[in-house]
Write a structure and sequence with these properties.
With about 290 residues, this protein is of the alpha/beta class. The chain folds into two domains: about 160 residues, P-loop containing nucleotide triphosphate hydrolases (Rossmann fold, 3-Layer(aba) Sandwich), CATH 3.40.50.300; about 70 residues, Conserved Hypothetical Protein Ylqf, Chain: A, domain 2, CATH 1.10.1580.10. Helices cover about 40% and strands about 15% of the residues. Strands 1, 2, 3, 4, 5, 6, 7 and 8 form an eight-stranded mixed β-sheet that branches. Strand 2, helix 3 and strand 3 form a beta-alpha-beta unit. Helix 8 crosses helix 9, helix 8 crosses helix 10 and helix 10 packs across helix 11. The two termini are about 25 Å apart. The structure holds guanosine-5',3'-tetraphosphate (G4P). The site of guanosine-5',3'-tetraphosphate (G4P) has 15 residues, from helix 6.
């Protein structure tokens, strides 16, 4: 399968980030906790040079708790500030304020030395499509926030969301283009649904998912699809055939409908019904990927 993102989208997204970065003190980068590496953008380091950075491990409710902890340790070891959150329920959001202050310590100190008081930290929320940027802005900023209008020194038309006297967000999130640098990364992005499913071959994708689950989350797979004989299941095709039987996915004439079963397992996985599953672990030696 060939995964890609249109060059036009990429250029537009890059330009938007480049235009706004000058206004920003802090880049809040959302990643998907199920694929924290594949959902990062390789060019962000270059784009955000000199800015404070914070990574939010979002959708942590869908990811394996143990592996979430490993990723948090990994980011810490890399010297990257990170917070584990669920933007949908609001879990973990409170911890962000303290971490923002830590991440922006130098700027706060610089302002203090220059006698600048009450200048809020300006942040942009960035991430690849579907990672939860809008959900995060809405639930973090909530109803309490006020939109501030144009200010001197701010590009005309830019809207800032004031969270409190310390922190403001640019109201438009920065879209980062996914990195399709390897087949595995493309596959991970496709698995969590951050690509247009219409261009994907669902049975192939579901087979990849099943192979991974058989190896890493066998008990959850067995429990979801009532597979008493899970130890006899050695191939994705055997599992798909079982799902066809269990969920009555048949075409006319009792022929197994693998496409339907594939769509079903993909949907179950993406909405967390198979359990909390993470598709990639941090490198064992803690080195940057
Ligand atoms: P984006 O701006 O980065 O493109 O992402 P957006 O906020 O639109 O979120 C994409 C989907 O991810 C939404 O689901 C949203 O509800 C879901 N989401 C965001 N954060 C979390 C989280 O921490 N946990 C979980 N489980 N889901 C999260 P949707 O299916 O598009 O909409 P809806 O069904 O929730 O209305």
């Amino acid at each position: 399968m060939n995964y890609q993102w249109y060059p036009g989208h990429m250029t537009k997204a890059k330009r938007m980030m480049q235009e706004n970065i000058g206004l920003i003190d802090l880049v809040i980068e959302l990643v998907d906790a199920r694929i924290p590496s594949s959902s990062r953008n390789p060019d962000i380091d270059g784009l955000c040079a000199g800015k404070s950075r914070l990574v939010l491990l979002n959708k942590s409710d869908l990811a394996d708790e143990k592996v979430n902890r490993l990723w948090m340790e990994y980011f810490k070891k890399q010297g990257i500030y990170a917070v584990e959150i669920n933007a949908k329920s609001g879990q973990g959001l409170k911890a962000i304020y303290g971490t923002v202050r830590e991440a922006c310590r130098e700027k706060i100190e610089r302002d203090r030395k220059r006698g600048i008081k009450n200048r809020p930290i300006r942040a942009i929320v960035a991430g690849i499509p579907n990672v939860g940027k809008s959900t995060f802005i809405n639930s973090f900023a909530g109803k309490a926030c006020a939109k501030t209008g144009n200010k001197p020194g701010v590009t005309k038309g830019k809207q800032w969301i004031r969270l409190n006297k310390e922190l403001e967000f640019l109201d438009t999130p920065g879209i980062l283009w996914p990195k399709f640098e390897s087949k595995e990364v493309g596959r991970n992005l496709a698995l969590i649904g951050s690509m247009n499913d219409e261009i994907l071959q669902m049975t192939e994708l579901a087979s990849d998912l099943i192979a991974y689950l058989l190896q890493n989350y066998r008990a959850q797979l067995a429990s979801r699809y009532r597979m008493e004989n899970v130890d006899d299941m050695t191939t994705p095709l055997m599992v798909l055939t079982h799902i066809c039987e269990d969920r009555k996915c048949y075409r006319k004439g009792q022929e197994a409908d693998y496409e339907k079963a594939s769509a079903l397992i993909m949907d179950d996985f993406r909405s967390g019904r198979i359990g909390r599953i993470t598709l990639e672990r941090p490198p064992a030696d803690g080195s940057a990927e």
